[in-house]
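Cast an eye over this sequence plus tokens and explain the fold to me:
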Amino acid sequence: MRTYDVAVVGGGAGGLAAARAGARRGLRTVLVSDSALGGDCTFTGCVPSKTLIEAAADGREFGEAVTKMRSVISQIAASEDASVLRKEGVEVVEGRAGFSGPRTLSIEGKSIRAETVVVATGSRPAVPPIQGLDTVGFLTNETVFDLEELPASIAILGGGAIGCELAQAFRRFGSQVHVVEGEARLLPREEPEASAVLADVFAADGIGVHLGVGVTRVGPAESGAGVCLERSDGSNVCAGTLLVAVGRRPNTAGLEAGVGGVELDERGFVRTDRFLATSAPGVYAVGDVTGRLLFTHAADEMGRIAVRNGSSKLGRLGRRAFVTPSIPWVTFCDPEVARVGLTEAQAVEAGGRVAFVPMSQVDRAIAAGRTEGFVKLIAGPRRLLGDSGGGRVLGATIVAPRAGEMIHEVALAIRTGMFTGRLAQTVHAYPTWSTSLRQAAAKFFVASDGHPSESNS
């Protein structure tokens, strides 16, 4: 049996971050992975999807976009393969790891033990139990990027981030696209105003949107080519190709979590506390397998925190919590939908206040002819100080062409506990999209004459 300071199971974003953190701390670190390093993000997630989105926006042909996508994947994968990791001080073992005891792993007959074990096995596409779905061919994010030819028509089951991003991309390439979502609106996790903007954009793009009715059965089209989704209201949505994008399931098969004393929750995700510790001493979990924020940047942050906590010489005093309120996320449609912190509905319980600025009031948006979005800024009272100084920043949703870049100013404000007034006081270059954030913050300091107060704006 070989022993290590840190053993990481899984080579996606969280596993790579954990392994590199261990090596940087001078710890003897091993990374075990049964697939190519980089994981879902590099090969079947962020990298290929954003490359296709950019190519579609640039007006490229689908075949050209696919060639570009594969080149980008190769370039990024080369920066995180086994040879690179070994040069950085990480031992890499290929194979599937499962617990054989407390902090002990078995990899194809070989055993290793570590003072700290980090589980980072990620997630896979969820496939809903819809009658007939298993009898028709369908794509998921793991297979859609293998397409060589553009589908003439595609039905996308799921109106969340993956479904909406790829719907717009395929429409721009020239496919006929239908999005089928059982909830009453697209992007149901986001603010209702964001869903409304995207619905209008999709309608203008010619994307069919079918909301609020579940799919009861899937079967082949009457013509024999393609599939039809039968909905509970009796309507059908048919297309030549079906993409299923309804969520994620944890990769815990073969992990033998129970043997290692690691508890799973009712959904099968690894249960962790706010320090990312599992129920087993010395075992941590990071990334999608925890069921927390299922984003690459969140997994990266978790990986580094888990190694820090597991190797702290100060014990519990040296631990750092994984804090989610300041972690942003973006749906990369056009316009982009970015959010961090609380929504308006969530902020009600915290005594939150809302400032809303439509892009029709932002000079840069007017100049660009892109006034379909908005900024919604959430602020709430500070303990003892109340709403003085505008209170503290609690969250924001931004819908704009560059919302994914703009949201980080708010993320920083939340992370540092910033007074809302600081955003209102910060001079922004004119005319920029980010000026809208200052306009929103200034709304918390409107004087009786309807104009921003001089002392706060």
